[in-house]
């Protein structure tokens, strides 16, 4: 049944995104809920109207069209869809670990729109992900910002207008501290934090030369007809975009010295680091991070999983927030993505952030870090209808999501999910009787199930030699 | 001009005469290559089926076909009473006629048998002076490495396949394929068209860039951009070389120029919905003439395939459960269960959606399963007429040879298969196969349902690969034409693959063996005689050896 629906969707929607956007989402009116707007306070007994994929109105006694779906929100909470600023869900592969600079590779090329972790994210109230390349290289691949439109073609997941980004990484992962020396095997350069800095500087020197070669060519192209255009270099093009301020840098890092190193290096070349990722020692250099204008995307209380993670403290979010840094809480994990609400809540316990400050960590702040704050991250009229209805306050461990909307369309609904289970059991029974699914009388033993992705990307397990 | 001595003149004259004689003999031989299949049912594919008619073959071509055609007096007559004539079947994606598979490319990782592999087995003649590592050499052409003959070709012919697209085995830029007839004494005689297409696989290289799927896409893009620039730079240089530094010659980029110009089709291996979507995206980005090979879930993207006019070489290696029912494997994910069932429906859905497609064997372990699996697609919604087309005129059209093969029409190459019973009938048998107008020897039809399970049992083997006799235990299970099993002993333990057998008692299978610390593919070819078996073993990188065996426990 789902498959038939899926095929129908493919038939109806594939072709162009523009075409898909013309399809009008249903209208929904949520009545009498507690609305956590994040940017405009928390409103009791308030209605939210979702129309044409946007938040059309927020207020009391709103009217909807006759064919609108009306949801009784009494006792329930409406909050903006959670934004995970560091995810590897949906990616068929995470690291191109063979080279130290892999700015030519794109996560957008390896999206898996049917990854079940996406559905689990929706069930945790998550609607937007920043899909990042892994941390194997000083300069990694290009990111992809997506809305979780589970069941639709990958093309429709792409967040329109999100700023292009790239993954950088510093420290132990890129210098391969976890890789033992093997006789006869040359280690990939760099092996020290000094080498990491040199690798990044070298790449930007090359990018500057590359930009100059193109600028000169463009200036001379009209005059000399025998001029051959410079080689297009997919590795250097994204670095030129960084220099021109057209691409955000999301830099995986741990210790204070390497954070300062990257800030200095960025200043030297005249670009900005948009976010520091993990940034466990960020509290030590919070003022410098704020002065540079960078954001920080962190874990609540995960530490000591390697040497460079020993100095972490759970007050990181609070200290950096008070220093003026835009802070977000990310998952970096298919599993943690389902409970980012609880990660944010921890910041109220450790460091006494206000409820609103804690809420911002998983909504408007990551939106700012991805350049999508005009579209999502809070409940405001005119923003995208990416919201979730919770059956209790999202910061309670007893609360769960009833319904998740993306662009006004329901992509997760607890009641529908429960109702569908009997049909799926029936379908399974039928399929198991089908000829291609019958086990042979004798056959090979089954494959040992393989973990698809490390639960915590921070240990780079993929493609390690 | 020097004067010629009489002896020289005589020799010269003699050589001319003998040349004429040989040519004349050749013409004579062709002249008696005339066959007439009379009173047969003829499925022309291009036109209506002739319920009772005659087909005349002369000089390698179809010269007459129809209900009122008379057999010429010099023709050898084949009584077609009760038989059906079809165009020769085309397998639209194979590795036929290629040397044995080499280990996947890993530069510098050769080791012991390296020289042998380079010389004998690696399908990468692009090696010398290539600018690219193995796996990224689009200049590789199968035309340069194909060899006539071999049991795989015989097996394919025995079920009625007369023509196959044969592609390099591995790589990202795998190289260029050829369309070959499955008969001929030389590679040159076999080729119908070469090159046909550029082939692309999405498997990363090992240990070097690109080592991930992301890197594969980046590499494909970069090399196509480089090829565009190479083309433009060469064109500029040709216009006025004076005053311009000459572009460096690059065979790899030169081979990609027809691809980025949209002149040469690109076959991309893609089975799942997202693999196919990625191939379509890349083709749209570079305006490539795409052909999808594999295509298991192509039915989910029919709109895009139709819109971008992309045909599918649909694999008939239909997925089925191979693991026993054990707690570790069950319950299987619902998605897996669905995919196996729906793969049987893909062909029918493509036909209904108007997406062009052709059948391919998709590395079936046993080529005899090909028509049985085609029959499963018919049971799941494909019309029998379209099933015949997907083996004949559709692949011919996709490969641009529809004026040469793919239907029974006057003037086309005389590739035909003559069956007793309908092509997709379980009880069908192949009576005759003609390739390039000549009958080919058919191997005795393989086992077939109801065939005896001669091989089943446990065999004690003594294997000699030049290092003294080693013992091993071989377990074989034969179910109809399907042979499975495993081997264990001095050479390690492994599952057998590519097993085939004949009622005459010949058996052939491949198994990984461990020799001198290296795992190699060994192919066993043996003859069965009651409870005894004997034959030869060839292992990659080793001199051929022998084996004998006896059945320990018949069952």
How do you describe this structure in short?
The complex is a heterodimer of chains A (465) and B (555). With 465 residues, chain A is α/β, with parallel strands linked by helices.
Keywords:
heterodimer, A: 465 residues, alpha/beta, Urease, subunit C, domain 1, TIM Barrel, six-stranded mixed β-sheet, 12 helices, globular, B: 555 residues, alpha+beta, 4 domains, eight-stranded mixed β-sheet, 30% strand
Order of helices and strands of chain A: HHEEEEEEHEEEEHHEHEHEHEHHHEEEH
| Rounded Rg of chain A | 24 Å
Q: Kindly report the spatial arrangement of strands forming the biggest sheet of chain B.
A: 22-21-20-19-27-26-25-24-23
Largest interface: A-B, 60 and 61 residues
Shape of chain B: globular
How much helicity do the residues of chain B have? 25-40%
Give the CATH class of the largest domain in chain B.
Alpha Beta
- Within the CATH hierarchy, at the fold level, what is the topology of the largest domain in chain B? TIM Barrel
Q: Spans of chain B with pLDDT under 50 lasting ≥5 residues?
A: 13-31, 102-126, 445-451
Give a written overview of the molecule:
The complex is a heterodimer of chains A (465) and B (555). Helices cover 28% and strands 19% of the residues of chain A. Chain A has helices at 2-13, 17-22, 116-123, 193-220, 237-243, 256-269, 286-292, 316-322, 340-349, 355-360, 364-370, 414-433; strands at 28-36, 42-51, 54-59, 69-72, 77-80, 82-87, 126-131, 139-142, 144-147, 165-169, 248-253, 275-278, 295-298, 327-329, 387-390, 401-406, 409-413. In chain A, the strands form three sheets. In chain A, strands 1, 2, 3, 4, 5, 15, 16 and 17 form an eight-stranded mixed sheet that branches. In chain A, strands 8-10-11-12-13-14 form a six-stranded mixed sheet, sandwiched between helices. Chain B is globular and about 80 Å long. Chain B has helices at 6-31, 114-121, 151-158, 187-190, 213-239, 251-260, 273-286, 302-307, 334-343, 346-353, 369-379, 384-389, 393-398; strands spanning 34-42, 50-58, 61-66, 76-79, 84-87, 89-94, 161-166, 173-176, 178-181, 191-193, 198-200, 266-270, 290-294, 312-315, 357-360, 416-420, 429-435, 438-439, 457-464, 469-479, 482-489, 492-495, 497-501, 506-515, 518-529, 532-539, 545-554. In chain B, α5 crosses α6. Chain B folds into four domains: 32-87 and 408-443, Urease, subunit C, domain 1 (Roll), CATH 2.30.40; 89-106 and 122-226, no CATH class; 265-405, Metal-dependent hydrolases (TIM Barrel, Alpha-Beta Barrel); 457-554, Beta Barrel (Lipocalin), CATH 2.40.128. Chain B has a nine-stranded antiparallel sheet, with no helix packed on it. In chain B, strands 1, 2, 3, 4, 5, 16, 17 and 18 form an eight-stranded mixed sheet that branches. Chains A and B meet through α1 and α12 of A and α5, α7, α8 and α9 of B.
